[in-house]
Amino acid sequence: MAILRLLIIGLFLLNPAYSLDADDADSEESIEVSAEPVAGFERSNPSRRRFGDLEFRGGLVLTSTSSSFGGFSALLIQQDGSHFIALSDQGFWLRGRIIYEGDRPAAIADAMMARVLNAEGKPSARLDTESMTGDRGTIYVGIERLNQILKYEYGKKGFLAPGEPILIPPGIKDLPFNQGLEALVFVPEGFALGGTLVAFSEWGLNEAGDLEGFLVGGPSPGAFSVKRIDGYAISDAALLPDGDILILERKYTPQTGVAMRIRRLPQAAIRPGATVDGPTVIEADSRFMIDNMEALSVHCTASGATVLTLLSDDNFSRLQKTILLQFTLLKGGTRRPPPGAKP
């Protein structure tokens, strides 16, 4: 998040683990990730499990000795609920596997990291990789500071896939520096917006002061907006089984600390020229086990439950944490997504 990043940039420079060196980071690195269980979501009442329409499954505080580990801003949980791909805003891929004890996340295994490659197939420190979404074996990545979307044939080439720029609306290029594309959702065929990339800006505002969004490709390309409420900015988004879109939002003030919120946007309301709003699924502040929550992914279990996984961006700061949280959605999440909703 641009605002939070500026507030603690001095801490990054004092952190010896923080690295921007891309020259020696173009090969895969096997890393060890340690996981400390999160006892409960509400700090003062760790036994509480129900939070509105969500039920807390569990969480992990993740650490690693790798200097590349941290800054995670996007996440894709594959449909087995275990294998995942995460994206650092410093241009690193992370893939691995969540190990469960029952329904509770317990550990991370098989973790590998590598530099995200540009269109020339080379690592670049200029890739402020803030968002991603998947369509079968293809991954689309939003580059915030360059206001660009790159397409990766990850299913064919894995970490070695170069980023192919795709055609984007002019409005994306006009988004504010370091406050541009923060969330991407690919809508698969079978929905009204099938074949569309839905792109959300972090803090790009229209004349009414609402957050700018874009429909890229698909049956009805164009611009729309999301109602801005209480100073929140968008940090990620994910598609629900019924086609609605969840947006993850967060804000930070020195007085109140960090907060997060998830809203549910009806897909039927998203169209060019519309201003979209939706009900709050959950809202949490420093009384809860959160940090700078940047990433959101949705998957369905074998029993048909819809699971939300969130991941925080620690900004490579000793004062912050990489936290993984999982919740089960108790309402409106029973239908399976069409084939190919995730890579």
Write up this protein.
Residues 1-25 and 333-343 have low confidence and may be disordered. The longest helix is centred in the first third of the chain and has 6 residues, at 2-7. This protein has helices spanning 2-7, 9-14, 154-157, 170-173, and strands at 29-30, 34-37, 50-51, 54-63, 72-77, 83-88, 92-101, 104-115, 129-135, 138-143, 148-152, 164-165, 181-187, 196-205, 211-217, 222-226, 233-239, 245-253, 257-265, 275-276, 280-284, 293-300, 306-312, 322-329. The protein has a single domain, classed as 6 Propeller (Neuraminidase). It contains four helices and 24 strands. With 343 residues, it is mainly beta. It starts with a helix and ends in a 14-residue tail after the last strand. The chain is globular and about 45 Å long. A hairpin with an 8-residue loop joins strand 13 (181-187) and strand 14 (196-205). Strands 2, 3, 4, 22, 23 and 24 form a six-stranded antiparallel beta sheet that branches. Strands 1-8-7-6-5 form a five-stranded antiparallel beta sheet, with no helix packed on it. It has a five-stranded mixed beta sheet with strand order 13-14-15-16-20, with no helix packed on it.
Please render the helix and strand layout as text.
Blueprint: H1 2-7, H2 9-14, E1 29-30, E2 34-37, E3 50-51, E4 54-63, E5 72-77, E6 83-88, E7 92-101, E8 104-115, E9 129-135, E10 138-143, E11 148-152, H3 154-157, E12 164-165, H4 170-173, E13 181-187, E14 196-205, E15 211-217, E16 222-226, E17 233-239, E18 245-253, E19 257-265, E20 275-276, E21 280-284, E22 293-300, E23 306-312, E24 322-329
Parallel strand pairs: 16-20
Antiparallel strand pairs: 1-8, 2-4, 3-4, 4-24, 5-6, 6-7, 7-8, 9-10, 10-11, 11-12, 13-14, 14-15, 15-16, 17-18, 18-19, 19-21, 22-23, 23-24
